[in-house]
Amino acid sequence: MNMRSSILTLCLAAFIGTANAQISTPDSLKTTKGVLVIQPVEHASLVLSIGGTVIYADPAGKKDNFKGLAAPDIILITDIHGDHFDSAAVAALRTEKTRLIVPAVVAEKLPASYKPMVTVLKNFGVTTQNGITINAIPMYNLPETPDSKHPKGRGNGYIVTVGGARIYISGDTQGIPEMRSLRNINVAFVCMNLPYTMDVKEAADAVLAFKPRIVYPYHYRGQKGLSDVNAFKDIVNKGNKNIEVRQRDWYPKQ
User: Which of 177, 172, 169, 128 is nearest to 154 (CA)?
Assistant: First the structure.
């Protein structure tokens, strides 16, 4: 093992600690600020770690899902639904130093005692935390209707920018123009579950439009079970062989 491999191994080991063996093995991406560690957790939940900062996106479900993972410095929450905003999980995982980045509809549901640690972002809002830039991106259903499960302006997708890398977290959305017009995305987490977001073909078509270097199909459990992520990969790679589709086990208990 060479020195570079040894350093990467140590970074991963420090991040995952004694992490729950049921979750996927973490991936990594080199940036100008060091190694970005990408930890799929379950459904919409994932963890990013770089330069000593740990970011949780939509932590939900059992606390054991995060057993052994480093505590969050930043928690991103995309929307109010229970698979994205789990107040019990947030309470169990946060520390005194944790910052919560949330849309207004989530902030309204947080305890008053959390206020000093909360930053509210509207769509297209931006904040910088620990030297990491976080942009809020629209996420919504098409067509836009009064009874939409995800109306425009309520929730946020996010772009996390650090070390020259741009990581897009879709949240619950369809292949909206704001997603399709994204550029220079290094890593994308893209949802696909009916009837809540989009189907596999729509998700693949949107990915082919904005051309991320790496895409993770995630959040793919719907009313009729798991979406066909193999079909998603086939469509994307037939359209653009340069996009790396990373399939990970987001439902280890199924």
Answer: 172
